[in-house]
Amino acid sequence: MASDGATPAGVGPEASPIARGGLPDWLVRTITALIPVVAALLAGAVVLLLMGRDPVAFYVNVLNRGLFSWLGLQETITRCAPLLLLGASLIVAFRAGLWNLGVDGQFLLAAVIAAALAPVLITVLPVWATLSATMVVAFAVGAVWSLIPALLKAYHGVNEIVTTLMMSFLGISFANVLIKIPFNDPETTVPQTLTLATTNRLPRLFDTTINFGIVIALVAILLVHWVMTRTAFGLRLQVVGANPRAAMHAGLSVPMLTVLTFGLSAGLAGLAGAVEILGVWGNVRADWDPAYGLTIIPLVFLARFNGPAVIGFTFFFAILSIGGESASRRADLPNYFILVLVALILVFMALTEWLGHRRGLARKA
Amino acid sequence: MTASEPPHPSDAQAPLLSLVGVTKRFPGVVANDDVSLDVFPGEVHALLGENGAGKSTLISLLSGMQRPDAGYIEVHGAPRQILSPRHALELGIGTVYQHPTLVPTLTVLENLMLGSAWTRRMDIAATRARFDELCRTLGIELPGEAVLGSLSLGQQQYVEIIKALWRGERILILDEATSMLTPKGVEDLGRVIARLRDAGMAILFITHKLTEAVAFGDRVSILKLGRKVGAIAPDELKTLDRDAAVERIVDLMFGSRAEAEVDGPRHQRDIDAGRHPVVIEVENLSAHAAPAETRVEGIFFTVHAGEIFGIAGVDGNGQKQLAEALAGQRAISGGTVRLEGQPIEGLSVPQRQRAGLRYVTDDRLGEGTVGSFPVSLNLLLKRIGESPFWRRGVIRHREVDAHARRLIERHDVRTPGPHTAVGRLSGGNIQKALLARELDNQPIAVVYNKPTYGLDVNNIQLARRAIRERADNGVATILISTDLDEILSLSDRIGVMLGGRLVGIVENDEQAQRRVGELMVGARETAA
Amino acid sequence: MDALLSAPFLTALIAGAVAAGIPLLLAGLGEQVSEKAGVLNIGIEGMMLMGAYLGFVGAWWTGSLWIGFLFGAAGGLMPAALMALFCVRLGLNQIVIGIALTLGADGITALLHHVQFSRTYPRLPRVDTVAIPGLSDIPVVGEALFNRHPIVYLAVIAVPVIAWVFRRSHVGLNLQAAGDKPAALDAAGVSVVSTRLWAVLFTGVMAGMGGAYMSTVGAGIFIPFMTGGAGFIAIVLAMLARGRPSWVLIGALIFGGSLSLTTALQVGGVNVPTDVVQMLPFAMVMLVLVIFGRRAALPAALGLPYVRGQR
Hints:
- The complex is a heterotrimer.
- By secondary structure, chain B is α/β, with parallel strands linked by helices.
- Chain B is built from 18 helices and 22 strands.
- Chain B has helices at residues 55-62, 85-90, 108-113, 124-138, 153-164, 183-198, 210-216, 234-239, 242-254, 319-327, 349-355, 364-368, 375-378, 397-410, 427-439, 457-472, 484-490, 512-520; strands at residues 17-26, 29-39, 43-49, 70-75, 78-80, 93-96, 171-175, 202-207, 219-224, 227-232, 278-287, 299-304, 308-312, 332-339, 342-343, 357-360, 390-391, 394-395, 445-449, 476-480, 493-498, 501-507.
- In chain B, helix 7 packs across helix 9 (242-254) and helix 15 packs parallel to helix 16 (457-472).
- Chain B is globular, with a radius of gyration of 25 Å.
- The chains are: A mainly alpha, B alpha/beta, C mainly alpha.
- At the A-C interface, helix 6, helix 7, helix 12 and helix 14 of A face helix 4, helix 10 and helix 13 of C.
């Protein structure tokens, strides 16, 4: 009997082929990716209606603030920077078949250490060196924070979902401890780190409020996409992700690649933290946790681990979150409505996938 | 054969289970072609067949997982549609599957209670009583409170049998029941089966092991390529001693009638040590083995350029472990492997690959390919990063695609294009892609593991032709197969593996079939 | 250091351990049932949060904690039903759906809370406790353990009950088979899908009640995101307990204790930042995983959808 080439079933993110036959493939994919978004916006409208808000006005407000006002657009683009870096981080992990669900902890811990380090370094180093060194350290901090889950996964086969989540919570608390005790700025009443002066932060682009972080982020995600799809290294990671036994058959060292994947993914999450601090905030206050990580996961799935597609979805999401802040305020709602939308997108995405899979099977039979 | 004399199953007695002209087709394959057989009460009917002979299909028909396309099944003398596994049990057909269907983390008794309505109270006393009763019937002792996974595989097999007989089933089907057992376990199982037979059960014993068919069966039928190619009735079987019975069956299985359709004429070349230097030398090779695996030990052999060295043997006697040790996928615990005089046992898979040693795995989708990746990348799976396909680590799609097109064309891989996911191709085309990958780029030596397993007749021929052509071009070839026909039609010399050892090497001459057959079942040791 | 051994400190610690441990116990027991059946229920955090919200609403509307718990159970049941539909019936990715449910619950409860209560911030009255005669008079531990809301006692009683179900009922056998060898359960004529479905729904009910405990008996008020990762700890508890409900109880009390350590230390006169103490449970999980990781027992088929004929 001819064996059916089903995708490897299971917990791991599904393998995505690098290329597929058929002409309008990109079109099909774009449409299948947009369906859940549209469905979620519609369902979100129903939620708004149920709460007695005008959904049309709400969405119009979102667009007006997040996209069509110059100030809002700049904020949107600024917001994209950390999100894109986290997206890049998740692309690496998911393509290699690993669930790094600990990006929030990696992000925050690296952010705090970056915030503590930069104001010190600036006293001895020029700006560009301070910024670069801080980003390198932040990358390393993120990577180190993933080491235990990585080693447990690589050598003992311990499920990385649980370990990365635990390390994430641990990292968030640890970051707060750092803010409150060793890195606390004694000058302020609220516990926070020392502040990096605005002039010493990542340079602004032209005459805007947008900082250089977006350039770093775009380069990073495109580079990651290129490495994963075009290089031998990326292909090796994808083989491990799609079929670990085939990787062994081909002589790849699966444990080593697993640790390396975790290091890269978590390092990028750490870099995201540094960019957010060096570009936007200049310091970290106690209990600050934007929790970008979990919300970006659905987008990366929606984009099927494709870098340029992640850029598109991230931009859309940034509009929603920047525009949503203002629209929610006007509608007298908390900002959390965006979370509902993200959840709806995820659910509809899963459904679309399932329908597509069934149609695929039907065609085959 | 067990000592006790069976009660004579008279042919006048009606069979409990009959297949009447049963045919089952799958796309491209006729899995069962007009098969008829009867299973009588008080008789063990051994059904013998190689892998791919259609045994599993037959079981799925009898246990209600599939229905025949033509013909019918009679149970207790009446034609019956067997609708589901549950229905098969209701009809009194208990099946012990090749793959265990018990929960390893539950106790024996709990496993036997599995499946009752959840609202029912757990009646441990009644379960225990029935369990003890069946243990007596089988003549065995089992700890009912023990966790199943802690029992030996032999004991687990008994639990499977008890489960199959739980509701008083009188027809018992055993599918490759000995595949996980030790020789001692097999012997004990033989006693249990004899007891059940003596208690009047109708037993269908399905196996690919010739000796077991003879040892356990009161009646033997032989299945080959979906057809029943012969049978030995109890009266005749009784008159034959063991060796004669084996010879008779080998005749039926591999006899002149069955030959020639798939295979070309026998093909032996004169290997001249001068013109054909030694390419592979294996000296006292031993490999690491996981606890449940066959340990490969003390392997010696050499293969000359252009020679096909067949490795025959019943499945699971260490062939896969040997292949993996040669390919570099499995750690070696001792001995040497030389390729053109250079020791290679310390080299990694890609290094051996580059040195010209190739391995065509039998597990095409499990490890041989990445199903979701395009054909083009699967064709380079073991050469990731090599030039000219990658330059400084960056892929060059032109080269990759050109390489893919070239191989697709040369090996006639039927694919919509080089970018189609390999998992979408048929088994035969996946195999062609695998062959294309391993035979490309100047192989010096190739290890084939069951290269035609699961393919249809047409693709079998193509694969065999590819193997032969390569050998004619000077490639030293190791051909591992459980299909004796294949070994006989392709090899120059034949080694036989049994229990992780190479128990003999014979020239592929007129006597080869008989001698290999004997070696395979451990009848006699022959020096090369 | 004498302060650490004082009676008020110990009483506060034990009382806190129970208060913080009961939601973990309820959710952990629920999660254990799911994991036993082979479903990794990442959405449990969302189920707890929905339970916390609806439990509070129910108790506040009716003035009855018991109705609050019913509401809480229903709250946990809703995301569980979605989980069951998407992951068990349709075989969709359990992780993606789990995250979606948690995010959705985060959003929707915060939203509803804002719409309803953002101006009033109502608080439930202090709950009535039931003192067990005799036992509650024991010094130090008596007040902390035996003068509690009845739901605490019920939650503890659930431990032996579930243990009994696991070991001594067909339900228990079916659950274990569904997680360890679904094909065997299928072969025995029991539907793997419906076994897992009921397991997930049960988890929803338990997690919902755990959440309800947090908002009603525990805090007396609903705060957005108030579960704060308790669901994830419940997952780990269930995982480390390896199918034994009594271990969930012990684990829940230890984790509850470490969560309440800050308060207890303050009572005992030691001031330690909350964050250090908050790290404890997670650090402990990691420590346990590093030490026992090799043998972390999870059902063989955990997280995999069941497809007949695939082994």
